[in-house]
Amino acid sequence: MFDLLSPVAMYLADSVLSVIYTWSFLKEKYEKRGMPVIWAGVYFLIQILVFIIGADRFPVGKAAGIILNICILLFMQSFFFQKEMQKQLFVTFSFVAGTETVKYMFITFDIVVSGWGNQILDHLLAENILNTVERTENVITIYNAVMTVLCVVFYILLLSGYLFFIRRKYIKKDYPLQTHENVFLILPCIAALCISVIIRLIITSLNNGLGIVIYKAVPPIRFWLPVVGALMLSDIIASIVLFQKQIQYHEETGKRALLENQVRQMQKEIAEIQDIYTDMRGFRHDMRSHLANISLLVKGAVGSVKEELESYVGKMEETVSRIDFIYQTGNPITDIIIHQKSQEAEKKQIRFQVDFVYPHKLPIDVYDIAVILNNALENAIEACGMVESEKQISLRSYVKGSLFFIEVENDFAGDIVMEKESGLPVSSKENGKLHGIGISNIQRCAKKYMGDIDIAVSNTGGRKKFSLTVMMNGKAGADG
């Protein structure tokens, strides 16, 4: 009974762990709560029917059993999950490689522990503690039960630990795998499967009469077989870690290139706008002088002519004021950006409040501040544009010692989803690109000055607020 209980318990463990592992990678076809339970039950029954009941009539070899198990999992995935063939292959091969490798490590553990147990039984018999048949049978029954529990617990702990590490290290689960990338991930799994088949064949053949003798004659086998298994599992995990690092490196390189291109484009545009800004300042100065002279002449006019002239001069003064920048931050570049964004907000009927002062005393590059303002305000305007009721954007800055803070708060609609690995907002289904674009560039600029960003989302009286705080250390800019 206990010989049968161990494989049944292992197949049950495989079924439960396959649910946790597979559901963390693939997208379900049917979003129903009972699907994981159905998967576990179906997979468990198939394993029992094929590998225990059916094995008596139709014996399956080690390699054929692995291939059959892979086919079963892929077939089930086609029913339960959306079609993602590359990812499904990776999930299946990595899972089966883990189960097969752990199983032969389990056999080694079973043999070693059984040896210790037999020594204990021999000692009890030699000391005449087991002096009756009934007592001996009871002790053997308890011994077999304890052995079964120990071996199954060992199997579950080892396999769940392996699968946990893969789930934890495989960060970019939404990344679409290419064929060559999938081959890179699957090859270590195939190598582990091939080695596990060879070792299990050797162990099985040796157990048909010489296995225990070999283990006694060559004790290092008890140590090296688990080491080989651990190395194979580590190799699979290492390949996943390396692959994830490559993805992150390419993403970071792409983001850096985009940021550098954005800064270059901004420098070019701002240089052109600065020339216009300088001309406008001179134009405003000259116009105000002319208006002052005209006003003196108007005072000397009489009757309806005077009223018409005063109205005309008033309109001219209004036009001159319109081409002036409302927000004087202390730097022409930040003046231009805030003025431009305020015009965009006004067109979308968004209240725009500004309390921003450029930190002249801190050695922070104005173009880094420009990138932060441009991206933060662009995201805020986009988010407010989706709000049907009252909407507002608030921009403020302040200095504390060598630290410079920028705060942007805005209304938004829908939901904001945070990415687990980065902690930054990602695009939501309802809101499209809400706050997803530019946040990473803002964080990159902050980290350039030993700073970072902080994001807070609040909901007061049904009014949702998104708050972004950027902190930059002026000392880092001076050191750089």
Q: How many distinct helices?
A: 13
Oligomer: single chain
Number of strands: 7
The H/E string reads: HHHHHHHHHHEHEEEEHEEH
The portion of residues forming beta strands comes to 5-15%
Whole-number radius of gyration? 36 Å
Distance between the termini: 72 Å
* Average predicted confidence as pLDDT: 79
Going by helix content, strand content and strand pairing, the class is alpha+beta
Spatial strand sequence of the major β-sheet: 1-2-3-7-6
CA-based shape: elongated
Spans with pLDDT under 50 lasting ≥5 residues? 209-213, 429-436
Helix content: 55-70%
Largest sheet: 5 strands, mixed
Characterization of this structure:
This protein has about 475 residues and is of the alpha+beta class. The chain contains 13 helices and seven strands. A five-stranded mixed beta sheet has the order 1-2-3-7-6. The protein has a two-stranded antiparallel sheet with strand order 4-5. The longest helix is centred in the middle third of the chain and has 80 residues, at about 220-300. It is elongated, with a radius of gyration of 36 Å. The N and C termini lie far apart (about 70 Å). Mean pLDDT is about 80; it is low at about 210-215 and about 430-435.
What is this structure's SSE topology?
Layout lengths: L1 H22 L11 H23 L4 H19 L4 H42 L6 H37 L9 H29 L3 H7 L2 H80 L3 H20 L9 H16 L3 E5 L10 H19 L7 E9 L2 E9 L5 E2 L6 E2 L12 H10 L3 E9 L2 E11 H6 L1
Parallel strand pairs: 1-2
Antiparallel strand pairs: 2-3, 3-7, 4-5, 6-7
